[in-house]
Amino acid sequence: MARKKQYNEEEVIKKAMSLFWRNGYEATTVRMLEKEMGINQFSIYASFKNKQGVFLESVKYYKKQLNSIKDKLKNSNNGVVGIKEYFYNFITFSTEGQIRKGCLVTNTVNEVKEEEEPEVMVELKKFANEIRDLFVSNLKQDDKKSNSLVQQQADYLMNAILGLSIASKMFTKEQLDNIIEVTFTNL
Amino acid sequence: MARKKQYNEEEVIKKAMSLFWRNGYEATTVRMLEKEMGINQFSIYASFKNKQGVFLESVKYYKKQLNSIKDKLKNSNNGVVGIKEYFYNFITFSTEGQIRKGCLVTNTVNEVKEEEEPEVMVELKKFANEIRDLFVSNLKQDDKKSNSLVQQQADYLMNAILGLSIASKMFTKEQLDNIIEVTFTNL
DNA sequence: TTTAAATCTAAGCGTTTGCTTAGTTATCTT
DNA sequence: AAGATAACTAAGCAAACGCTTAGATTTAAA
Q1: If you average pLDDT over residues A28-53, what whole number do you get?
Q2: Which of A4, A7, A42, B43 is spaced 20 to 30 Å from B127 by Cα?
Q3: pLDDT tens for residues B16-48?
Q4: Residue A50 sits in which domain range?
């Protein structure tokens, strides 16, 4: 056998995710990834094939983080995720110490072109659908709501959370809290 | 004196705006602008100084278009802009024939970094504030609303319209219409 | 008709991009 | 201890980026 990797792949992806998140996909260069991840280009390409590979792993890690938040909310609420609580956690997670970076996925949906990075777009759309499904299954708890009303409100909530991703870059925490409150008085 | 310009500056900016809108700021190269605008690099730099200059003019043109829609709504409604109607026109304008391109300004806010393009960000923030002011002045028509409620609802509407910019890239026209309906049941 | 000035074309500048390759170093098996 | 193999370093590749420059062409005033 031979030499061992001097780095842990999940640890360097965590750093890469942070950089992509702050910086956007295209604007993040492989040279910047080198510095942030603490390994050089050869190692990056050896572990993740190419820049897109690093990004796809970053999205996986992002998903994992957001899902562990979801699971915590679920466990503290009889197996049901409270959507309002999810919203609050979403914007807290989206800002995570440093403000004005929005949601990694929303940022990238807005930036990347389907024709140029189809593999990336597939992952991002999956992600969006998972969140929408979460809204749907929560709204269905209320038997009084018709199926079409559930779909309509799920879209409304998706719109609100997409908005929050951008709004989190320009508004104060208080304003964001108010927005969430008003958003839910409708349901 | 000397030779005359073979092109009309507003006409070529119109074309440039369309390209930036579809494509994003960074992803639009000067070579692409050459083809779209139908003039070559020398002329672009002579008329607009640099790529940023072309973009700033494009935003001006975009603003002008959106404001003329606003003025029409104003004139057909006793000098007051109905916000709901503004929303409908906003998403129609945002899709404008070809779907999935969102709002030029929202797209760019999401993409451009304040440190790298401060002049661009100044313009974009001005634009966002103008729209928010429109919401505020409309909401103030209702004397029963307190000042703080007006501010809160204005933020809520900003969030919804930011969301719509992204949502217009992923949702159907029907879904977008539904989202707008639910958004306004609160106000 | 001449002349001066602005507009055009097209080539090319230096820099940065994602990615590769040649050559060295470390570590596991035998 | 020796040899094999994978991980490392660092240099460099072609292509694309924003922008500039040299030189030809057009136009309007003198």
Answers
A1: 95
A2: B43
A3: 999 999 999 999 999 999 999 999 999 999 999
A4: 9-185
Please list, residue by residue across B40-75, b when 16 or more beta carbons sit within 10 angstroms of its beta carbon and e when fewer do: eeebbeebbeebeebbbbbbebbbeebeebbeebbe
- Closest approach of chain B CAs to the CA of A3, in angstroms? 41
**Would residue A4 count as lying in a domain?**
no
State the smallest CA–CA distance between residue B177 and chain A in angstroms.
10
Asked, for residue B121, whether it belongs to a domain, the answer is: yes
ipTM of the complex: 0.89
> Are A159 and B102 in contact (CB < 8 Å)?
no
Positions of strand D less than 7 angstroms from a protein CB: 4-12, 16-22, 25-29
Residue nearest to nucleotide C18 (CA to C1'): A30
In a mutational test of the A interface, the residue from B153, B159, B187 whose CB has the highest number of chain A CBs within 10 Å is B159
- Which residue does chain B place closest to A162, by CA atoms? B163
Chain A within 8 Å of B142 (Cβ-Cβ)? no
In chain B, the residue whose alpha carbon lies closest to the alpha carbon of A171 is B155
Res. B95 pLDDT band, cuts 50 70 90: low
B167 interfaces chain A, CB cutoff of 8 Å: yes
Spatial CB neighbours of A58, under 8 Å, sequence gap ≥ 6 = A13, A16, A17, A20, A21, A104
A93-150 pLDDT, tens digit per residue, is: 876 656 568 899 999 988 898 889 999 999 999 999 999 999 999 999 999 999 999 9
Residue B165 CB coordination number (10 Å): 25
Buried b (16+ CB within 10 A) or exposed e, B155-164: bbbbbbbbbb
Asked, for residue A2, whether it belongs to a domain, the answer is: no
A161 phi, psi to nearest 5 deg: -75, -30
At B7 the pLDDT is 93
